[in-house]
From TrEMBL:
Entry function: May be involved in the intracellular transport of sterols or other lipids. May bind cholesterol or other sterols.
Alphabetically ordered keywords of this record: Lipid transport, Lipid-binding, Transport
Gene3D superfamilies linked to this entry: 3.30.530.20
Protein name, as recorded: StAR related lipid transfer domain containing 5
Organism from which the protein derives: Anas platyrhynchos platyrhynchos
InterPro entries assigned: StARD5/6, START-like_dom_sf, START_lipid-bd_dom
Keyword Zinc carried by entry: no
Pfam families named in the record: START
Ranges of residues in domain START: 40-233
GO biological process terms on file: cholesterol import
SMART domains, A to Z: START
GO molecular function terms noted in the UniProt entry: cholesterol binding; cholesterol transfer activity
Length: 233
């Protein structure tokens, strides 16, 4: 009997280790993919810019992951990378729900490691309620590079503790994330490079989707700028 219990326990540990390894690999692959997007300037088509000097520029190209688009946004935030990261980092009790109008709730479902976690995000209705509330379950990686750049990368994942919930449409994030990049000689500024690649799910007209994302991304940068100012106040 003791041997059977030991074997079952050992098998469960091995299964958990394997699941954690697979999630780590999946998050690493998402980070590698958006790293490729960062290095590849080809094929991006501008769709929105804000400010008289184009402080935030949003562009898109067809996604290779699903039948929608991947969006690229780039702008400079008037704050040091640490403050910008404090506002956007995907952690339990983080600030994102306080300033991002497109994030209603955020929870860490499973801490896979210090750098990797499985998270559930819910969003409110949007676009004059044409887009109903959504939920997303992602494996998320946080990473810092030698040059001080901080990265949050994510992609969709299934998790037994996160079955689809009533009153929400399950959406899927494909490799996406943000780079907080220090600007040499300008310690109080941060280049924020973001990639959004989301299948909202449900039955939405393509015209609604194509209009929603550029406006939503521009709003993300605007609200983040306000949040960083409030953080420093």
């Amino acid at each position: 009997m003791r041997l059977k219990v030991f074997l079952n326990s050992s098998q469960n540990i091995k299964k958990t280790d394997l699941e954690h390894a697979l999630k780590g690999q999946r998050s690493d692959a998402a980070a590698a993919k958006i790293g490729q997007y960062r290095q590849d300037p080809s094929g991006w088509r501008g769709c929105r810019s804000t400010g008289t000097r184009g402080e935030v520029v949003v562009s898109w190209r067809p996604s290779a992951e699903f039948s929608g688009n991947v969006y690229r946004a780039e702008g400079t935030v008037a704050a040091c990378p640490e403050d910008v990261w404090e506002c956007i980092k995907p952690v339990a009790g983080g600030l994102r729900t306080k300033w991002d109008q497109n994030v209603k709730d955020f929870e860490v479902v499973e801490a896979v490691s210090d750098a990797v976690s499985v998270c559930r995000t819910t969003t409110p209705s949007a676009f004059v309620r044409i887009i109903s509330p959504r939920e997303f379950v992602d494996v998320v990686l946080m990473k810092q590079y030698e040059d001080g750049t901080m990265l949050s990368a994510a992609t969709n994942v299934e998790h037994p503790q996160c079955p689809p919930q009533p009153n929400f449409v399950r959406g899927l994030n494909y490799p996406c994330g943000c780079f907080c990049i220090p600007l040499p000689g300008e310690p109080d500024k941060t280049q924020l490079l973001s990639f959004f690649q989301t299948d909202l799910g449900g039955y939405l007209p393509q015209t609604v989707v194509d209009s929603f994302f550029p406006a939503s991304i521009a709003g993300f940068y605007s609200n983040l700028t306000k949040a960083v100012k409030a953080l420093k106040a």
